[in-house]
Amino acid sequence: MDILTSIISLGFFAQVLRLMTPFYLGASAANFSERGGVINIAVEGFMNLSAFSFAVISILTGNIAVGFISAVIINLMFSLLFGYFTVKLKINQIVTGVGFNLLIAGLTKFLLVYIFSSSSNTDRFEGLPDFTLLGSIPFFGVFLSDYLTVFCFILIFLSGYILFRTRFGLRLRSAGENPQAGETLGIKIRSYRLYGILICGFLSSLGGIWLASNQNSYSDGMVAGRGYIALAAMIIGKWKPVNIFFACLMFSAFEALEISLQISGTDLPSQLIQMLPYLITILVLIGFIGKTKPPAADGIPY
Amino acid sequence: MNRKSLINLISVSLSVIVTLLIIFILLLILNKDPFLIFSKIFSEVFADGYGIGQTLFKATPLIFVSCGLAVCFHASIFNIGAEGQLNAGAFVTALVALKLDFLPFPLLITVSLICGFIISGIFGLIPAYIKIKKDVSEVITTIMMNFIILALVNFFLLDFFAVKSTMRTEKISANFMFLKMEDVIPFFQGSSLNISFLLALLLAFLMYMFIYKTGFGYKLRSVGFNEIASRYLGIRTNAVIMISFFIGAGITSLAGMNYIFGYKGFYEFGFSNNIGFTAIAVTLLARNNPIGIIFSSLLFAVLDYGGLSVNQLVPKELMLVVQGIIILSLLAVDKLVNNYFRGKIVS
User: Fold this and answer.
1) Which of B79, B133, B147, B311 to mutate to test the interface with A (most CBs of A within 10 A)?
2) pLDDT at position A4, please?
3) Class of domain A16-123+132-288
């Protein structure tokens, strides 16, 4: 009964919305890349990279603004490299993504030991401050106390607007649906694919920054598959910003549930609770959605 | 040697050189002496029978897992779930070996390995099914399966089978342990090298024959090369994908053999130490060719053991960076080399 009451509380919903942030940032990131026709399974790695660089640079400089900006810039540089591999050299996007994930995982582990002489985590630091402007609003304030969470709500409409209502979005989608047709209309397909990848790098860096900021430190493996769950949310959400948002809400609800169950100390084994989001993903993919239809030229080098 | 393998050889060696250069520069930036570190790696590894034996021992599971992945990759199935699959298989292998200890030696080994193979294979069938029925890329699903399988193994191990306050099963009887190489060849004195290594070499050879010289191997490569064309040829592509996923995932379970029968005598959670991911790099470097896998596994084993030996000078995690850079430089160099040679033909 205790669990039930804790679930229906306001705090639980606030928790769900908060935990939705990295999922939605990662899923939107991947969506921009895939709408442009590039499968980017390195979202996991990119989130890891920015969480790491944000934490480390913030600690070393003592200034989170510097950490924030450097984390975004480092991610954009890696995204450019990813773009060089997938768009310029036309290498298999999935293999490239796996390579980036392995490289970034290795790099962060190595530098973590090198800089902090610890194989598990960095020192603690002060994360992003709370967003106070809307936080004072009664009732809704609880949901809006985090800059990046608020940004997510804006992003739902912003990404929908950009993708479906602007010239840029139309051209980006043409790069993902039918690049040959786009090219004959004079669209620089490769540039648009690169733009998609760069937006992906930017949004995934925000996801990583949120994780490190939320935990006030970086620890090895802290992304813990959130990048992959974000990709799953994007697939379940069928590449549409609003649907993706609800898919992310589902995953964050399970994560919040997992946390409340652990706090309330149930008899359920923790391993089984931890695997819930992944199990749900597989089940959803097996049964509850129809055939998913990615952008037609998704994953095909051009 | 034909032209294609010459180009392959050029790009593989070039990418290894590029990787070494990048690592060299990285070490210089970090103010470490690259010459000292590289020379220490090679002197430790090739100093004595122990170093060589340990290196071959570390190469053994890589060869097994990579051979499994090669089957998948040839069918254009990008199986990233080896880490989970091999753990499930190895866990079951150890359990069966513990429960059926009344069987004679060869039978027990065979039965337990087959059980492990089937379990790993079944876990490979789930992503295959989703890929065929729902058109969802196996990349996502195999990654999800990794998390699920590892959680399940952890749960069953800790709640039912583990020795108290450890992460491992009971030890199997010493009668069932494999022969250690040091008992036959004193040169390997002290190392954990056992006959699993020879079995790994045998498997690599068999997989080479299977992939390149059998009818099914032909269908497999055909589906991997062009699925639609294969369908018009009358190949039942979905069946080929299911079977190759089953075989590929199943083979990864053999990685447990080296640890369970050859080394410790029990299954321990975390024994795999991300072999499932390292094997992806190994397989790509070998061009999915099982014979090449032997050599790239040896290279990675040298890095692994060498990394341990220079841990005082530079964190051993450096070798993870090397693995990542090797994959990426291989991809880029290969493309550039191929473009270069194609340019030659045209002009």
Assistant:
1) B147
2) 62
3) mainly alpha
Q: What is the pLDDT of residues A158-195, one digit of tens each?
A: 999 999 999 999 999 999 999 999 999 999 999 999 99
Nearest residue in A to B281, CA atom: A99
Task: Give the three-state DSSP class for B268.
Answer: strand
For the entire predicted model, the pTM comes to 0.90
Q: Whole-angstrom Cα distance, residue A229 to residue A253?
A: 13
Residue A2 has pLDDT above 70, yes or no: no
Of A104, A112, A271, the CB nearest to B154: A271
- In DSSP terms, B194 is beta-bridged to B180
Interface test with A, best of B148, B277, B340 (most A CBs within 10 A): B148
CA dihedral B197, B198, B201, B206 (to 10 degrees): -130
- The ipTM is 0.87
Closest CB to A114 among B30, B130, B140: B30
Domain boundaries, chain A: 16-123+132-288
Using a CB-CB distance cutoff of 8 angstroms, which residues of chain B are in contact with residue A235?
136, 140
Gyration radius from chain A CA atoms: 19
**pLDDT the model gives residue A256:** 86
- CA dist list (Å): B135 to A44, B103, B202, B320: 22, 44, 36, 33
Instruction: Say if the Cβ atoms of A89 and B137 lie within 8 Å.
Output: no
Q: Check A94 against B322: CB less than 8 A apart.
A: no
Shortest distance between the Cα of A107 and any Cα of chain B, in A, equals: 5
Distance CA(A225)–CA(B96), nearest Å, equals 31
Domains of chain B: 33-313 (1.10.3470)
Which residue of chain B is at minimal alpha-carbon distance from A230?
Answer: B140
Average pLDDT for chain A: 87
Q: Which long-range contacts (CB under 8 A, 24 or more apart) does A190-194 make?
A: A190/A87, A190/A88, A190/A302, A192/A36, A193/A36, A193/A37, A193/A38, A193/A83, A193/A86, A193/A87, A193/A302, A194/A80, A194/A83, A194/A87
